[in-house]
Amino acid sequence: MNGRPFFIVGPTATGKSDLAADAAHELGGEILSADAFQIYRGLDVLSAKPDAQTLARVPHHLIGTVPLDAEMNAEKFRRAAGEVLGEIHSRGRFAIVVGGSGLYVKALTHGLAPLPEPDPELRERLNAMSLDELRSRLAQLDPEAAREIDWKNRRRVMRALEICLLAGKPASQVLAGVGDCSRPGSTIPPTGVFVYRDREELYARINERVVRMFEKGVIEEVRAAGRVSGTASQMIGLREIRQLLEGKMSIPQCVAAIQQATRRYAKRQLTWFRRQTNFSSLNLSHFSHDEAVRWILQRAERSFASGDE
Fold first, then answer.
1. pLDDT surpasses 60 at 72
2. Domains in the chain, please, with CATH?
3. At what angle do helices 251-276 and 199-215 cross, to 10 degrees?
């Protein structure tokens, strides 16, 4: 039995979950989620977890397994995923990794670069800086990272700058070590498919999904959420709905803001997977669902068979 998983990756709202569930069902396999937010327990609507029907089709792993107040990172995910993949293999089953969190996927396929540990004194100084000051300093030290990073995400901007200062070289160069397949822990050959859609269709699906989130009660879901960790707080829509609950914006404004933020996230995901992976590409705008499942099955079966040779 081949212990190598098959990857289905791509931006949010493409329909990865349904494709993966149908493919895994046909293969008699199991799914491992590589989603940085669906791994949390709670906020199911906001994080767009697969619905109950999809989850019931085949076993799913690393969905709703981490408390909302817990911090997560790619290394923690890599360790947890490794255990799950080992268990799936021990059962004689195939594994399909599905998700849109690029760094989580990369952690499995190429390992992780050793990053400098946070320095409390430096962290204190960085915390005292404004976001504009952090952005300016990062742009000076690492123009490449500055071009790629989400400028609105203070935590990521600060961490990138922190890596630059501690490592004595651009964070983009340090993180480039992730792409070294010879690194320790790099045991999973990256075989899989990168799914996407034409931009207009993808953006329409994103807009529609956000509207459905509000119809499903996402406002009450956020209102009832307890303490949320720093990493979980980066979930798209959480900040906007909290502002809505504080009376700082209307529902239409909140919907529009989340739609825009999600579209921007999808654009970053597209850029990441096109640059960081060599998976086969599949434009779902040109295939029916059943055709796409058959296309994926052919490649997955070929991949699993080659691993047995």
1. yes
2. 6-112+183-307 (3.40.50.300), 120-178 (1.10.20)
3. 140
